[in-house]
Amino acid sequence: MAVNKMAHRNGPLQEKTVNRSKEKLKVLPQEILEDVTVVQLILERNRLKNISGIKNLINLKTLNLSRNDLVDFPVEIAQLVQLETLYLNQNKIQTIPDGIFNQLQQLKFLKLSTNHLSKIPSDLGCCKSLQYLNLSHNSLKDLPEVVLELQNLKELFVEYNRLRELPAKLFENQNLEKFSAASNRLREPPDEVCAGGLKQIRSYFSQLRSSEADYVKRVKTMFLGSSMAGKSTLCKSLKQKQTVAVDVKDRTVGIEISEMKIEDFRFLFWDFAGQEEYYLTHHVFITPQALVILVIDLASYRTEDTQFNSKVGFWINNILMRVPDSVVLPVGTHVDQCGVEDVRDKKEDIQRRIQVMLDNRKKYLERRMDNLKENTEPALFSDQSSKLDELTNYNLQVLDLIPIDCTNYKDIDSFQHHILTAVQDKNIFPNVEKKLPHIYQAVESTITNLIKDKEIPDHGIVSVNEMLSGINHNGSFDRLAQDDLKDILRYLHRIGLIMWYEESTRLVGTVFVKPSFLITLFKASIIIHSWDCAKLCITNMVRRIVEQLQSIPRTVLMGEHAFMKDKERWASHFQTKAILYHKAMVALTKNLLQQMDSPEVKDIAEEIIGGRNEKGKLFSLLEHFEIFLALKPSNPLNPEAKEFKPGGKWEQKETDVPSEAYLFPSSLNGIEEVSKWWGEDQKEDLCVRIYFLPEIPQGFFHRVIIKACSFFTPHVVGSGRCHVVSNGKQLLIKENKEDDQNIEIRCRRPGKDGCKDDFDWPDMEETAEIYDM
Ligand SMILES: Nc1nc2c(ncn2[C@@H]2O[C@H](COP(=O)(O)OP(=O)(O)OP(=O)(O)O)[C@@H](O)[C@H]2O)c(=O)[nH]1
């Protein structure tokens, strides 16, 4: 038994801490119960179902019972009247009887997170000293009124419950310093306001007090599916209320965003391009709580595994991994090109396979859970099991597939009816309506008018200050304080109407009012759109970029002080090493911007591209979205980076100076060079594997490479593998895409004489030719 006598005496008692955590205890050992001098008792990570006899320990001030198997609340706790700190998190408690908390007048800290609570007893209000209360991951439908009585409360956490509203009065308590209510599907204030923290919530309620409220029913509607499935046709036909034939030349580039009203619902349509190269940006734009319209071309669909996987399964997996609480409405297009029976069979096949997929996933999660339970040390895996619990509880709803012919408006109209019925169904969309102070809507329509009146340029790139003064100047409301206005912009950013990447020091001063133009910027760099129909079948990003590089005209090259031979080298280095030089990207972008016939775009070309000593917005954005890795950054790599310190935020230093070259991990091909440097895996390697359910999300390893290479010293990078050096030790990070998909991090064991002798590292200079211009 670990017993620590505390250093000082507190009154006549010698204070004692008893730590009996992780001992698989099922009952409290008698020797603990006999020692009334115990003041701190740590019993976390055991298997306790009850704690009979604990009432003897009348001097207890701290009791930690987290991660046990408590189902019934241990009522004897009521008699521990000295208790100041109580941990009961990660148990299975369903109810707390009345008459417990009114005894615990000294209680300052109470952690009840990750239980099954749907109610909090009203006598909690008696705990006048309570400063910390954690009720996250429970089943609360209302925030208990009693919390309002806790005037000394400094920290309150209610994330992952089923709350719909937060009481305004709670935020009048000026003692409250930390608060989070994430993942609740709140209506008042909406989650997008809550995400802004206490300050924004307070400003929201103060605006509600001084103005009228609007009740907004807005549904983010994402059109996903393979290339050429008919997403844009459907989206545009719905919006224009007539059939719209989308020419192949007008295919979606990146994402197109538009809004449409059906009755009192406002649908924010996000039409994602289906071409593979755009998947890279999906992680930025696919956001929770959406209606996902999964478009499948039924005419080209064949009832076989590979077809299902690429046209449906891939997307369902993607949605499951990114937004597992969404509603998916599959729609089968091109039915005019199929027979009636064909449509019926394909619909049946798709629905059956989706169901099998979801069932298999559930079984897989259950199997994992059983494996954990069978483990001799389940306490060690309690984090994993609560994560598995969370995954099992997510509920991706897949509605019945609707077959339509996009060339027939009757079908479009009836599809619109289906969408409306789905969002009106409270079982499918319980919390569509959001309450907003009228000023939020007023600011939004002022921005729309600014765009309409051409006060904001077509490209929609404006400085925050211009934006703020434009809104205040043109809005038909009393002048708003800058801070309040910024909070409203933050809200609009979170719902996706504008984009403002405040977290990036390089982008904090700029608002992108037209998110679709942002995508056009990507198009102008790596995501290059080909007009050539012949190449649309198998799109190959590398090939396209190489072609684009080769087509840069001499005049543009000369502007960059480059020659025709440089162009060839740029193309060859991109092809072989997935590296694109800064100069090459500038030339590419300039060339494409020149082709856009807009004087306004030309005006901001410099801002987009940057100069010799200044990075343009495009590069900052691509870096921010982790599309590429800036090579040879001007800041030295920092082994003491604060990202590695517990609790610190993982972030890269931003620099104003453009990098010399950029690595695009998604375009890497071979692994031979990595294998050559790493050699065979060895038994003595230290190996950590991170498993993914059901698979590694598309584009995720790409971002792992970017993170790893920005914090360690990159050595050799290949497709799905990268070899870095961390503190003199070599690490291999690799993606295993076989059955149980995982990311493996291997560290080579240093030799007897330490690292230095063991590692004969070629200096970065040896590979310098890749940077060589
Ligand atoms: N006959 C017929 N043609 C359709 C139907 N739906 C779409 N199309 C045509 O299919 C082609 C591709 O449609 P898009 O709407 O551009 O497809 P998308 O899914 O947006 O494609 P990406 O932009 O590449 O992601 C266009 O030529 C459409 O006119 C349909 O129901 N019947």
Automatic annotation (TrEMBL):
InterPro entries found in the cross-reference section: Leu-rich_rpt, Leu-rich_rpt_typical-subtyp, LRR_dom_sf, LRR_domain-containing, P-loop_NTPase, ROC
GO biological process per UniProt: regulation of signal transduction
Record's GO cellular component terms: cytoplasm
Domain Roc: 212-426
Protein keywords: Coiled coil, Leucine-rich repeat, Nucleotide-binding, Repeat
Residues forming coiled coils: 340-375
Pfam family, any one: LRR_8
Gene Ontology terms for molecular function: nucleotide binding
NADP found in the keyword field: no
UniProt xrefs under PANTHER family: MALIGNANT FIBROUS HISTIOCYTOMA-AMPLIFIED SEQUENCE 1 HOMOLOG (PTHR48051:SF55), PTHR48051
Name the record gives this protein: Roc domain-containing protein
Native source species: Acipenser ruthenus (Sterlet sturgeon)
